[in-house]
Amino acid sequence: MQILKAFPTIISRVCGAAVWAFLAVAAVLSAHTGAQAQSIHFEKMSTINAGAGAAKLSTGERAVFQDQWNTLSKKGMRLIDLKTPMEGNNRVNAGVFRAGNDAHYLWVGVDYNNFVAKWKELSEKGLRLIDLETYVEGNKRLYAGVFRADDDGY
After folding, report:
1. 119: left (phi over 0), alpha (psi -120 to 50) or beta
2. Which structural domain, as residue segments, surrounds residue 136?
3. Alpha-helix residue ranges (DSSP H) falling in the chain
4. In whole numbers, what is the pLDDT of the chain averaged over residues?
5. Residues 20 and 60 reside in one and the same domain
6. At 47, which helix (H) or strand (E)?
7. Rounded to a whole number, what is the largest CA-CA distance in the chain?
8. pLDDT at site 16
9. Number of DSSP helices (H) and strands (E) in the chain, helices first
10. What is the pLDDT of residues 15-58, one digit of tens each?
11. pTM of the full structure
12. Which of 100, 134, 138, 144 is deepest in the core (most CB within 10 A)?
């Protein structure tokens, strides 16, 4: 039991806050997919204090997640990792946010051509794709991307 209580501290010291935040998302998604009887309600926001700064874990259906993204963006948080799991018959978004004040963009639920067109547009404005998710809804493959400011090439 002592090891379990110390686990967040151990991970944050060894791996850093970003990895701890990613592990938190993985644990939530793993718990969700492994336990149908214990359905997780994906409209939550948690703060994880680890390492050099806080990270926020946010989950919700697309509109709820977009509202959370807008709110956290205004508070100086930036999405760094996005997942798009299913909860029952509904697709939800789960993301990890870290402190930042750079330009950023979230583009979710579009087909390939639409996604590539937005990617090219954002690239010309100095935004780089940092996370890509793809999934199938109905019979259509859809794409979701997280973009952040960066002047490096791909």
Report:
1. alpha
2. 102-154
3. 2-15, 17-34, 62-74, 112-124
4. 75
5. yes
6. strand 44-50
7. 51
8. 45
9. 4, 8
10. 444 443 444 444 444 443 443 323 333 345 555 554 556 678 88
11. 0.68
12. 144
Contact yes or no for 79/96 (Cβ under 8 A): yes
What are the tens digits of pLDDT across the range 93-114? 999 999 999 999 999 999 999 9
Size (the chain), residues: 154
| Burial track 75-104 (b if 16+ CB lie within 10 A, e otherwise) | eebbbbbbbbbebeeebbbbbbbbebeeeb
Q: What is the DSSP letter of 139?
A: T
User: Cα 138 to chain center, whole Å?
Assistant: 23
Do 40 and 26 sit in the same domain of this protein?
yes
Write out the two tokens for 63. Answer: 């509109």
In this structure, the answer to whether residues 88 and 125 fall within a common structural domain is no
Rg (alpha carbons) of the chain, rounded to whole number: 16
Q: Which two tokens stand for residue 47?
A: 């703060």
Q: In terms of domains, do 30 and 81 share one? A: yes
